[in-house]
Amino acid sequence: MATSTGGDPHLERAYTLSGPDDARALYDDWAATYDADLTGDAQGYVAPSVTADAVVAAAGTGGEVLDAGCGTGLVGVELNRRGVGTIDGLDLSPGMLEQARATGVYRDLREADLTAALELPDDRYDVVVCVGTLTHAHVGPSALAEFARVIRPGGFLVATVLDDVWESGGYRAEVDRLCAGDLVEAVSIEIAPYRSGQQVDCRLLVLRVR
């Protein structure tokens, strides 16, 4: 079943990307209007707020957080509103990072391709949060293990996976594999609103790293 885009041309393009270069070009083009396009009533992009609530419920507000695929900073802003003070961000798009920098809520922002290994040491963060990136034609399930690698033991990975690729995209199988290998524990995997204006849901993952 195709995910509803509400006719938004940027979303339609986003769900048919051909690779990282195509993604960078799209998000550079979209950066200036991204927030307005997605957070209005037509799309109702509530995933950043829902996920920020889950981060604080699981990990509190005192740790170091990596916002992987931070985009324009919507998640960082929501975390900051809830009292999280130390947030770093990674994104593929320089244009999106420029918007995120303007929010003033990030300690550090860097360009990175989440489909590749992260240039970060093991056990670097207390939390990795990833919203809107584990979806059609973006970042595949192998990123979950890489995120877990940079989280300290006892820390949390909190991520959204677009509901209609949860199984078909291999994300459920990868979570099962990581749990079976005793790398993570699934604290919760729930269906949550993602773009409420189009009745699009996600799987909201809260995984504790062992």
UniProtKB/TrEMBL annotation:
<dbReference type="Pfam" id="PF08241">
    <property type="entry name" value="Methyltransf_11"/>
</dbReference>
<dbReference type="InterPro" id="IPR029063">
    <property type="entry name" value="SAM-dependent_MTases_sf"/>
</dbReference>
<protein>
    <recommendedName>
        <fullName>Methyltransferase type 11 domain-containing protein</fullName>
    </recommendedName>
</protein>
<dbReference type="InterPro" id="IPR050508">
    <property type="entry name" value="Methyltransf_Superfamily"/>
</dbReference>
<dbReference type="InterPro" id="IPR013216">
    <property type="entry name" value="Methyltransf_11"/>
</dbReference>
<feature type="domain" description="Methyltransferase type 11">
    <location>
        <begin position="66"/>
        <end position="158"/>
    </location>
</feature>
